[in-house]
């Protein structure tokens, strides 16, 4: 693999709530290692841990609950301000089971409303102030399940304060037609990676470092110099997994220690590793209930 020879960009890779706090994100850990392999600087920021520290009795329940994506609703005011229905009463009236779920964790509707109106907007502001985002050329967000709205909330603030910083989104929530639509609706998102980012993201970084838009790279959705949104399809699945580097989880464990999260249930006791991608069974007989692996069903494994 040829490495970039243009000036290195500095990249931040961010994991926002409501990603589970008990383990590091293999997504940003692996991508950071890949980015560094190609000569760019990369830092990871597991900001989900900061919220886990603020909500020690509630965070795990909010992460694991499989109801109506309440985690996305909770960050609505932080992301959209007055455009969101600020009091939240309509949501809780429509989905009373979300209040019942909170009650099982010793919380009530008032707690959820206070989170939405006050605590989470303040949390996002603290995230925006707590890191010198302007020191980065690119800030990327990984998004799976209930991470979209929290990521959008922080991304909007970063772009407002540092317009030159390029905002990138990737992850399962950007798969297929979802990625281009997020790029279309949220103009502060400069680039979306659709599919596996291992190769596409590095190719885009090289292009940006060379003063190009990066449009036309498979898996990249971005605007050209004229502001036109260009979608180049999905990134081809990586076929050879053995050459991929070891994910870098140092920042996760440093943050766990700094936030004194070691007493949190299961935090830091699991280290994700990757032995395969796709689904060997689904490649032959796709399970009707499964909504995963839509663009990368083909099974690949490490030796």
From TrEMBL:
**What GO terms fall under cellular component here?**
cytosol
> Which keywords appear in this protein's UniProt record, sorted alphabetically?
Iron, Iron-sulfur, Metal-binding, S-adenosyl-L-methionine
Q: Which InterPro entries does the UniProt entry name for this protein?
A: BchE-like, rSAM, rSAM_ocin_1
Q: Gene3D superfamilies of this UniProt entry? A: Cobalamin-binding domain (3.40.50.280)
The coiled-coil regions, if any, are: none
- GO molecular function terms attached to this record: catalytic activity; iron-sulfur cluster binding; metal ion binding
Q: What is the lineage of its organism?
A: Bacteria, Bacillati, Actinomycetota, Thermoleophilia, Solirubrobacterales
Q: Which cofactor does it need?
A: [4Fe-4S] cluster
Q: What is this protein called?
A: RiPP maturation radical SAM C-methyltransferase
| Lineage top rank: taxon | Bacteria
Taxonomic source organism: Solirubrobacter ginsenosidimutans
Keyword Iron assigned: yes
